[in-house]
Design goal:
single chain, about 400 residues, alpha/beta, Aspartate Aminotransferase, domain 2, Aspartate Aminotransferase, domain 1, 2 domains, 7-stranded mixed β-sheet, 12 helices, 12 strands, globular, binds pyridoxal-5'-phosphate
Length: about 400
C-alpha cells in the first residue's frame, strides 16, 4: 500500500467532487423534490442517520463539501455549520447543558460568550464558574452537577494555553464534555479532538474564510458528541447559505500557506516591538518567555498573526489612542484572520479572576499579509507620534 498523503494534501482534496469540476458547484436551495412518495418517506426515515439531501436547512452539496473538509481538518467525526462563530458556541452550550447543570468556562473566554453565560445560561438555571485560562487547578472546581469544561486554546487576548490532556483527564473522570474554541489555530495548528476534547468550535469568520468577506461558525465533534449537537442544530434552525459555504471552502484551500506568512510577519513585528522601550510585554505563545510557550511548543504546529502588546504604565489609555489613530496600515476594527492588519484597544475589566500584574494600556494587533517591513515602519511612526505628544499639565 502506498504511503498516506500528508495533511496539507488531504486538506486540498477534501470536500471536492470525485470527477468533473475542481470545486463543488454552489447549490442554492430550499426545496428538494422527490420522485415518489416512497422516496420521500425513505429519505425521512434515513436522514437522522445519513447525510441525504432533503431540505435546504439540512444541508446542500455546498455545505456538505465544507463539512467534509472541516472534518478532515479537525480529524473529527462530523461537522455542523452556523451563521457566526458566536452562534456555533451558543448552540454547543445549549445542546449539552440542561437546567440544574454547571459548566466551567475559561476566564479568557471570548467576551460575547461571557455575556451569554451571565445573561442567558443563568436565566435558564445553568450555573457557570470561570477558571484560570491555563487550566491549573480545574479539578477542584468540578461539582457533582458539572457537565462541561469549556476551553479556549489559547484564551482570547492574553493567549494562555491550557494543558488539554489535564482538562481531558478531569472531564473523563467526572463524566463531563470537553469543548474547545479552536479559532486561534483555525483547526490547522492545533487538533483538540486528537488531544482528548469531544467538541471543537471554529469561528470560520477568521482564518478559515481568511478574506474579511464572510461570517461563519463551525463545530466538529467526535462520534460520542455528535447526536446531541446535530439535534440542537436542527431544532434551533441553524444553517448557512451555499454562497457563504463556498467562500469558506475557497479560503480553506490557502489556509496553510496564509498561516505561515501571518506567523512569519507577526514574529518580525513582535521582535521589533520587544526592542522598543514603550512596550513592556508582547503576548503570544510562540514567543520564547511567554508563560504558555512550552505547552504551545508541545501541542501546536505553528502560530498566527495575533499579538497583544502592553505599553509601559507611564502611558495612558489616551496615549494608546494616539498610537492607534496614527497607524496607517492597521485598520481599527473587530475580528481578525483576514489578509489585512488590524488593531483594537484591549479591555480585561470583565474578567472574573483578578490579574496580579499591574498593566499599562493594552492593544491587540492582527498582523496581516502586508510586507513586514511596511508594518514595522508604520508601528515605528505611530510609536513616535505617541511619545512626542505634548500633554497639558
Ligand atoms: C471571533 C471569535 C468568535 C466569534 O466569531 P464570530 O463569527 O465573529 O461570531 C468566537 N471565538 C473566538 C475565540 C473568536 O475570536
Amino acid at each position: 500500500m502506498s504511503k498516506p498523503y500528508q495533511p496539507t494534501t488531504r486538506l486540498l482534496r477534501a470536500g471536492r467532487p470525485h470527477q468533473g469540476w475542481v470545486n463543488t458547484p454552489v447549490t442554492r436551495a430550499s426545496t428538494y423534490v422527490f420522485d415518489s412518495v416512497a422516496a420521500w418517506r425513505d429519505t425521512r426515515a434515513r436522514r437522522e442517520e445519513e447525510r441525504l439531501p432533503s431540505y435546504g436547512a439540512r444541508g446542500t452539496d455546498s455545505t456538505h463539501a465544507l463539512e467534509d473538509a472541516l472534518v478532515e481538518l479537525e480529524q473529527g467525526f462530523r461537522a455542523a455549520l452556523y451563521p457566526t462563530g458566536q452562534a456555533a458556541i451558543v448552540t454547543v452550550l445549549l445542546a449539552y447543558l440542561r437546567s440544574g447543570d454547571h459548566v466551567l468556562i475559561t476566564d479568557a473566554v471570548y467576551d460575547p460568550v461571557r455575556r451569554f453565560c451571565t445573561e442567558h445560561l443563568t436565566r435558564l438555571g445553568i450555573e457557570h464558574t470561570f477558571y484560570r485560562p491555563d487550566g491549573v487547578g480545574i479539578e477542584a472546581l468540578i461539582r457533582p452537577n458539572t457537565r462541561m469544561i469549556y476551553a479556549e486554546a489559547p484564551g482570547s487576548l492574553t493567549y494562555e494555553m491550557p494543558d488539554l490532556s489535564d482538562l481531558s483527564t478531569a472531564a473523563k473522570k467526572h463524566g463531563c464534555w470537553l469543548a474547545v474554541d479552536n479559532t486561534w489555530a483555525s483547526g490547522l495548528l492545533y487538533k483538540p479532538l486528537t488531544l482528548g476534547a469531544d467538541i471543537s468550535i471554529l469561528a470560520a469568520t477568521k482564518y478559515l474564510g481568511g478574506h474579511a468577506d464572510v461570517m461563519m461558525g463551525a463545530v466538529v465533534t467526535n462520534t460520542r458528541a455528535w447526536r446531541p449537537l446535530e439535534r440542537a442544530t436542527i431544532d434551533f434552525g441553524q444553517t448557512v447559505g451555499a454562497d457563504d459555504a463556498f467562500l469558506v471552502l475557497r479560503g480553506l484551500r490557502s489556509l496553510p500557506l496564509r498561516m505561515v506568512q501571518h506567523a512569519r510577519n507577526a514574529m518580525q513585528v513582535a521582535e521589533f516591538l520587544q526592542r522598543r522601550a514603550e512596550v513592556v510585554r508582547v503576548l503570544c505563545p510562540a514567543l520564547p518567555g511567554d508563560p504558555s510557550h512550552a505547552v504551545w511548543q508541545r501541542d501546536c504546529s505553528g502560530a498566527n498573526g495575533l499579538l497583544t502588546i502592553e505599553l509601559a504604565s507611564t502611558f495612558t489609555a489616551a496615549d494608546a489612542d494616539v498610537l492607534m489613530d496614527s497607524l496607517q496600515l492597521f485598520g481599527i476594527g473587530a475580528s481578525w484572520g483576514g489578509f489585512e492588519s488590524l488593531v483594537i484597544p484591549v479591555q480585561l475589566g470583565s474578567r472574573a479572576l483578578p490579574d496580579p500584574t499591574p498593566r499599562g494600556p493594552m492593544l491587540r494587533l492582527h498582523v496581516g499579509l502586508e510586507a513586514a517591513e511596511d508594518l514595522i515602519a508604520d508601528l515605528e511612526h505611530a510609536l513616535s507620534a505617541m511619545t512626542s505628544i505634548v500633554r497639558p499639565i
